[in-house]
Amino acid sequence: MAKVAVLGHGVVGSGVVEVMQKNKSVIEKKAGQTMEVKRILDLREFPGLPYSDKFTKDFQDILNDDEISVVAEVMGGTHPAFEFATACLEKGKSVVTSNKELVAAKGAELLATARKNNVNFFFEASVGGGIPIIQPLHLCLSANRIEEIAGILNGTTNFILTKMIHENMPFDQALKLAQELGYAEKDPTADIEGHDACRKICILASLCYGKHVYPESVHTEGITGLTLEDVAYAGDWGGVIKLIGRAKRLENGMVSAMVCPAFIPNDSQLANINDVFNGILVRGNATGDVVFYGKGAGKLPTASAVVSDIIAAAKAHGTSNSLTWADCHEDYVIDYKKCDIAFYLRFVSNDPNAKAKVQAKLGTVHFLNRDDQPVNEFAVTTETLNEGALEQALDELSKENIKLLGKIRILDY
Amino acid sequence: MAKVAVLGHGVVGSGVVEVMQKNKSVIEKKAGQTMEVKRILDLREFPGLPYSDKFTKDFQDILNDDEISVVAEVMGGTHPAFEFATACLEKGKSVVTSNKELVAAKGAELLATARKNNVNFFFEASVGGGIPIIQPLHLCLSANRIEEIAGILNGTTNFILTKMIHENMPFDQALKLAQELGYAEKDPTADIEGHDACRKICILASLCYGKHVYPESVHTEGITGLTLEDVAYAGDWGGVIKLIGRAKRLENGMVSAMVCPAFIPNDSQLANINDVFNGILVRGNATGDVVFYGKGAGKLPTASAVVSDIIAAAKAHGTSNSLTWADCHEDYVIDYKKCDIAFYLRFVSNDPNAKAKVQAKLGTVHFLNRDDQPVNEFAVTTETLNEGALEQALDELSKENIKLLGKIRILDY
Predict the structure, then answer these.
(1) CB-CB: which of A30, A139, A288 is closest to B130?
(2) Start-end ranges of CATH 3.40.50.720 in chain B?
(3) What's the count of helices (H) and strands (E) in chain A, helices before strands?
(4) What gap in Å lies between CA A197 and CA A176, rounded to an integer?
(5) Chain A contact present for B375, CB below 8 A
(6) What per-residue confidence (pLDDT) applies to B320?
């Protein structure tokens, strides 16, 4: 018999209770024991539910209940989620969470606390919602050196990009539609500026490479600067624009990690991941490319990932099966300006020699075309360039009145 | 320190040794202990290898070596693989395998033997090569009731179909090319007749629904009857033909399981899985559709899945973490003729009333077109029909000289 507490009765929390009830027989069979949600922490009132008696506003009721062996933290935010999770782990309770902000900020610390107390800290739901990715990376791809991991990690921005690409809908209108459909928050900053994807790639990079990657060290660009013109040039190039979080192992022991819009070729497995779906590509040195696809968010998908962790924690009671990663030293994540990558660049200039000047600065480029292209606009793709050197070259071009309208990295998955 | 034996030094077996050496540091970090291949069983001689001293021709050398705690069975076939695996489990050694034939025929029995002896029997590599699927299904989707699982489970046939679809290459020529490239065996029967996919869907169905599904109970059709005409009609319908293995939970506690070519709509995640790649779609009642994609075969992908199981077995030494399923009773898998499904049907007839007669027998149909369509040929898609009733109707039409040229099920993933 495992007794479970749920911290937070929002979208995910109520989903956890729902899945635990709806799939009770499947869950108990998998867990090999009876499973019951005993307490739910929320400051709000929830009268009239069949389980209204389980609510408490006092975290101590859960912390001090020795019957409760697994706690699902689904409140979101770093505080007090971090303090609550730490307290539970120190009391010998396993903690599972869907809270990517918490894991990205405090993962190394919480994993260490779990290990010290011989309990588990699991977070399958923190990346990719209902898509199994954390455990498969940890367990099934364990024989691989992971060369690279890249994914469409945010459903909101992927929905917006899908509308821009397939319906030629401008960014602002697509964002508004996403908000109307409930896919985007009233304040959409965390999604559209790439912060949400950043937290997720931090978690994946930490897991793949064994050292914590903090969000602050990851160069992050959102999709607010993208235009339908960029989308059209991407089409001419033979691909689409996706917001990609990626992390890559470098030969010198460092990693590169970044979130940015990117040109992706049409025949890539990531190119056809549309709407609010997520997809994550893992490149192993033995297994090659493996892709995981599914709903990256939503009440029941996310809740089902939380519940799968609850089951795993209940089964592992009394042992510490948590994966681990160490904290990282400074300079572990390489400065993005030191990386080499190919680019799409869009310029406007009335200088008749603008194209020649761009070629002189950037070397071989390939020109792209779009419908209704103004005579003073042109777009190119470059060969692989050092990003720091490119920025300097673009600065110099800007001084010659060759103005940059768009800059998007080109990825080849 | 875990010492490992490898039974069979063929493609996968030599890959296992290679991955164990190449990724030694990653593997030992994941396993939390040193890992070493101590013995390799093969009747052939392998002189001149850096590890030639590890070979033995006598299985007893491995069975009676108490230092060896994990045995990788990668010989293929049911005998003596079954006897060897059983003997190892009974001696307290965990067994991991890539042998789908063995798991599909003897899985329930081997899992029971493993459990009885408090060791593990793992088989991640038996389905989908390097794609993580067995453990994700078992662990990460454990909070879901799996409504359905369907996949492109055989790379050889998917390569042939890709050539037929994208290069208009006839079946025989595509098969020959697959043989030249080493994707198909000299005797390609197991692939092109669907037997290989059948074993894999048996394993997945057993895992999802908890009772062993035997290959003999699964209606299996291969791709030998497919023509470029069928491919063209599928295109007109808006999709492609894929060889799909599928299993579905029925409300009455039975399951339906089948391997057959199927029409798949272009916007399905399974439609764009091409060449030798595999893809597996899992439909959970909470998480919705999740798709796993990657190389379904090949030396290193398959070997890396075997090695991930070796790591898991080494970590779990002294405990039994194996998933389990029970043996099944008769009548657990429903007769395919009792199922309802929609069909594509292609006919030839010189009867001017043939189309009307087909409509009279089959109800609402939708006519498809192709280039160079002979005047006496027509193709339709039907609504959902009972398959047994359809077979009878087709029999009757045949007696009226309306001859069936092709029959393919329509799936909607």
Answers:
(1) A288
(2) 2-129+299-315
(3) 14, 17
(4) 20
(5) no
(6) 84
Distance from CA of B382 to the nearest CA of A (A): 29
What is the rounded (10 degree) CA torsion for B305, B309, B312, B318?
A: 180
The ipTM is: 0.92
Residue in the block written with tokens 């199981």: B309
Residues of chain B with CATH 3.30.360.10: 134-295
A52 touches chain B (CB under 8 A): no
Identify the band that residue B413 occupies on the pLDDT scale cut at 50, 70 and 90.
confident
Chain region(s) in chain A for CATH 3.30.360.10: 141-295
Q: Which residues contact A59 (CB under 8 A, 6 or more apart)?
A: A7, A41, A80, A84, A87
Collapsing DSSP states into helix, strand and coil, what is residue B253? Answer: coil
Q: Smallest Cβ distance to B286: which of A142, A272, A304?
A: A304
Q: Nearest by CB to A144, which of B23, B298, B310?
A: B23
Distance from CA of A391 to the nearest CA of B (A): 37
pLDDT at residue B372 is higher than 90: yes
Q: Which residues in chain B are contacts of A294 at CB distance < 8 A?
A: 287-291
d(C-alpha A242, C-alpha A58), whole Å = 43
Choosing among 3.40.50.1950, 1.20.1740.10, 3.30.70.260, 1.10.10.10, the CATH entry for A337-410 is 3.30.70.260
A295 is catalytic: no
CATH topology of domain A141-295: Dihydrodipicolinate Reductase; domain 2 (3.30.360)
Which residues have C-beta within 8 Å of that of residue A379, sequence separation ≥ 6?
A233, A344, A345, A346, A347, A367, A368, A370, A406
Model confidence band, residue B161 (pLDDT cutoffs 50, 70, 90): very high
Judging contacts by C-beta atoms under 8 Å, the chain A residues touching residue B23 are 143-145, 285-286
Written out in words, the top-level CATH class of the domain with range B134-295 is alpha beta
Domain A2-129+299-315 falls under CATH 3.40.50.720: yes
Give the minimum alpha-carbon distance from A279 to chain B in angstroms, rounded to a whole number. 9
B140 touches chain A (CB under 8 A): yes
Tell me the pLDDT band of A320, cut-offs 50, 70 and 90: confident
Q: Is pLDDT above 80 for A321?
A: no
CATH class assigned to B336-410: alpha beta
